[in-house]
Amino acid sequence: MQDGEIAVTEFDKADTNGNGSIDRNEWNRLALEDRRLEMVDKDLKRNAERRFTGFALAGMLMYPLIILFASMMGFDKAATLITDIASVYVIAASGVVAAFMGFNAYSAKADKKKASIQYDDRSETK
C-alpha cells in the first residue's frame, strides 16, 4: 500500500451506506449474494459430473467397436489385450454411471425436503 491510500476491507464493502454498521438490508444483500454463488457452484459441479459420466458412457459404448476395429485392421494381439481388460473397464465405467444416477436420485429427494428461502418482509423504516 502506498502513502495516503486507505485499505478497503470486506466490512467496508458490505457497509454500503457507510454508517459503520451492517444493517438488515445489507445482511440480506450479503445472504442473497452468498445464495447466488452457492447456486453457481452447484451448477458447475453438476455440469462437470454430467460430462464425466457422459465420457464414461461413451467409452463403454465405443469399447466393443475399438476391439472390432483392431481385429479388422489385423492387430489380433491388440484386440486380445483390449478384450482381456474389457471386464474391468466396463465394471469401473458402469460404477461411475450408477453412482452418478444414484446420487442424483438421492439429492433430488433431499432437495424436496429442503425448506425454501424465507424472505423477511419487515422493513427497517417505521
Description:
The protein is mainly alpha-helical. It has one domain. 72% of the residues lie in helices and 0% in strands. Helix 2 (24-72) packs across helix 3 (76-84) and helix 2 (24-72) packs antiparallel against helix 4 (86-113). The chain is elongated, with a radius of gyration of 27 Å. It starts with 9 loop residues before the first helix and ends in a 13-residue tail after the last helix.
Short description:
By secondary structure, this protein is mainly alpha-helical. The chain contains four helices and no strands. The protein has helices at residues 10-14, 24-72, 76-84, 86-113.
List strands and helices in order, with pairings.
Elements: H1 10-14, H2 24-72, H3 76-84, H4 86-113
Helix pairs in contact: 2-3, 2-4
Question: Approximately what portion of the residues adopt beta-strand conformation?
Answer: under 5%
The rounded Rg comes to 27 Å
- Characterize the biggest β-sheet: none
Give the overall average pLDDT: 80
Unreliable spans are none
Top keywords for this entry?
126 residues, mainly alpha, 4 helices
